[in-house]
């Protein structure tokens, strides 16, 4: 079963924001706490907060970033 293509941009933002916030919160949590036993639990808590902010931010900011990229790059096929 596959999703309709119209959900592609939202799914892309969901996955991208999830993975990026996972990596960044993991690095930040490790830097803040060091390699301690409580680190994985703290990481998941930080990730949950980060993802709740990252997902809607990606959806709002992505169109602006696409316009900026289009303005500073040559169109395909040139």
From TrEMBL:
Keywords (A to Z) from UniProt: Membrane, Transmembrane, Transmembrane helix
Superkingdom per UniProt: Bacteria
Family annotation (InterPro entries): DUF2798 (IPR021529)
Residues spanning the membrane: 7-30, 42-65
Protein's name according to its UniProt entry: DUF2798 domain-containing protein
Protein species of origin: Elioraea tepida
Classification of source organism: Bacteria, Pseudomonadati, Pseudomonadota, Alphaproteobacteria, Acetobacterales
